[in-house]
Design brief:
Oligomer: single chain
Mean pLDDT: 82
Strand content: under 5%
Number of strands: 0
Number of helices: 5
Largest sheet: none
Structural class: mainly alpha
Bound molecules: zinc ion
Helix content: 55-70%
Length: 141
């Protein structure tokens, strides 16, 4: 299908699917990404505060099944918490990088990460091919 589509209409298609990124100056683009990162950070911090709501009772359960279920919940809670911290760190790092010329550069191949990817994930540290390569490697271990 893509082979039969003339390049002209393809570029018009891209304009329709990416109205926010097309024609933006580099500076406006960065301001937009910074806003997106700050918004994400605010949402994560709100989640973080919710995490401080009373936890389930920590006293041991008489029934081992109840205890196991409680332990499972606790583990899940810490996993979510760890992921949240990791994500927050990445956002903070991206916000710092935005002030430099290094923002939007893949940490593995050092090529520019496409705008389309940064629009979806402003804290992206790798381009899609490098990410796929690393996931493939991790999967084999
Ligand atoms: Zn890369």
């Amino acid at each position: 299908m893509a082979l039969t589509t003339p390049p002209k209409s393809r570029s018009r298609q891209a304009k329709v699917s990416l109205p926010d990124t097309h024609g933006w100056s580099q500076e406006a683009r960065r301001a937009q990404l910074r806003e997106a990162l700050i918004r994400q950070r605010a949402l994560l911090l709100a989640d973080w505060k919710l995490g401080f709501l009373p936890l389930t009772d920590r006293t041991p359960f008489a029934d081992p099944a109840d205890q196991a279920s409680n332990d499972f919940e606790q583990n899940l809670f810490f996993q979510v918490r760890t992921r949240l911290v990791t994500k927050l760190k990445r956002i903070e790092h991206a916000l710092l990088l935005l002030r430099t010329k290094h923002y939007g550069t893949c940490r593995r191949c050092h090529k520019a990460i496409p705008d389309e990817r940064l629009a979806v994930q402003p804290d992206a540290r790798f381009c899609v091919p490098c990410l796929a390569w690393m996931e493939n490697r991790a999967g084999r271990n």
